[in-house]
Design goal:
Layout (H helix, E strand, L loop, with lengths): L2 E6 L3 H12 L4 E5 L13 E3 L3 H10 L4 H8 E7 L9 E6 L1 H13 L4 E5 L2 E7 L2 E7 L4 E9 L8 E4 L2 E4 L11 H7 L4 E8 L2 E3 L9 E3 L22 E5 L2 H9 L22 H7 L7 E6 L6 E5 L7 H8 L10 E3 L2 E8 L16 E3 L9 H20 L12 H12 L23 H11 L5 H23 L1 E2 L1 H10 L9 E2 H5 L10 H4 L7 H12 L1 H19 L16 H10 L4 H5 L6 H26 L1
Parallel strand pairs: 1-2, 1-9, 2-6, 9-20
Antiparallel strand pairs: 3-5, 4-5, 7-8, 8-9, 10-11, 10-19, 12-19, 13-17, 13-18, 14-15, 15-16, 16-17, 21-22
Helix pairs in contact: 1-9, 2-9, 2-11, 3-4, 6-8, 11-12, 12-16
Amino acid sequence: MDYDVIVVGGGHAGCEAALASVRMGCSTLLVTMSIESIAQMSCNPAIGGLAKGHLVREIDALGGEMGRVIDQTGIQFKMLNRSKGPAVWSPRAQADRVAYRTAMRRELERQENLWIKQAQVTALIVRHDEIIGVRTESGEEIRGHVVILTPGTFLNGLIHIGMTSFPAGRAGEFPAIGLSDSLRELGFRLGRLKTGTSPRVDGRTVNLDVMQPQWGDGDPQPFSYRTDRLEVEQLPCYLTRSTPETHRIIRGALDRSPLYSGKIVGTGPRYCPSIEVKVVRFPEKESHQIFIEPEGRDTTEVYVNGLSTSLPEDIQLRALRTIPGMEEAEITRPGYAIEYDFVLPTQLHPWLETKSIKNLFLAGQINGTSGYEEAAAQGLMAGINASLKVRGEEPFVLNRSEAYIGVLIDDLVTKGTEEPYRMFTSRAEYRLILRQDNADLRLMKYGHRFGLISDEEYASCKRKRENISSEIALLKRRRTNPTNANKILIERGLSPIKEPETLAQLLRRPQLRYDDLIPLRGDERPVDPEVAHQVQIEIKYEGYLKRQLSQVEKFKEMERIRLPEDLDYESMKALSKEAREKLMLIRPESLGQASRIPGVRSADLSVLLIYLQKLKRERNSRGDRTRK
């Protein structure tokens, strides 16, 4: 049969892409090299983390699946950065690897109109610069209106353990051969990246008693807005550290490291380096943190987070046994590095369709990103836009002021990447309004529009928004006299007031929380904790939020100035040579996007603005002549 959408790859990007497209009414085929490995966690068994947790909350608000599945299968939940401002709070959860994979596969298999096929796609079938299907290793041709490529690290994947190398997409699985050649033949520019994983160890050989337990939160918060509460028996992780002896062994084995012998040519992740890179780059450090993370409830295997390495297995074991608590450790699976091909993402539109081949979308690590969450976010956006393409509707693009997903994709298609891209809160200029706690208020309207969020779920979101507004209005209106307020202020060690103040004025004091004001609020019905949290942030950070919203308006003004797709940059001699080259390569959609291209200066933007004004005058002049 012919399909509306064909998704190639069953990783985190592929799962979200397939679910989004089928839930939006498209007949969808998911082609994966191994059905058993759908939604596999190749690296550490965790979802979320700094900034990544924001992405998962946004995926959920748009109607994606990752948040719901980790809520079902998580074994420890923690909100990171609680000691800092709410803009950088980030949820993280340890996952039961097998349970997560099983739950996601079950969700895929229960979807009507979604088919799953085990096969290796080796070529794309293109006619007149438009994709019409894929060809598998067996020679079968499968036709589809839209194709989404989500191959992860499988494109010409090559694993390194010491000086031994072998083709693989990840440990124990074949690489994808042929697809990279097909992409090159179609004119795409490809690069080579490297990532890695830590060894896994038999937990029975680890002495946890000498390590520091790391417990989850006592009141765990779910990732999904559609999860009422988490009732879960949480398992601890454990903290230990590498030692000077660990580092001595690693330095002594660098001649057997594929990373330092020149065997690996792909660029590795700057912000998640291997242990050998950390030892070489930071020689003054005597130790590095090592986290022992359970792989699941029904296994003794643990993941050694912080010890990503491609050193030979005998060196991995020797180094491991110098870490407190790991003196008798036995490796069940060695760490390894993997090199793989990726497509330079500046060849994509902001809606993740390729510029040169119509109806072909790319998502996940093929675009140069690193991490389950970054992949899932792209997969969801690709699935939504593939479905809109099938319907003949306009593409959906989130901008940088709306979501971390918007920051992620804009960075990729505008700036490109030369190393595995990882999301950080520092990448988002408007992070105070892009918090993980308000993703539903920002994005659920879109998920509802596309049919990925139910009427009931969206109605609940709207009620929450209304309750926040009414509660803020109440706190700004309700005044309290010094007699009542000072009891609370003095108890908190704060200076008393002399004149009546509104509850909002009191709440602006950094030391006071919303709960402190409940005795002064009156006899109204209790406020939902999520509403109270939003109210507290809105009032405490009101000045900062207004300033950031003002910045967003200026940003939108630049985004509203559209750049014609066929603009002749080469003829604009007033542009710098570098700007002409970059603008011709990326073909930005707007003046705002052009301003974010490395090498495009303020003077170049002025030239573009003058040129656009000239084009407008010429069009108006032609229109006047036509009317006459």
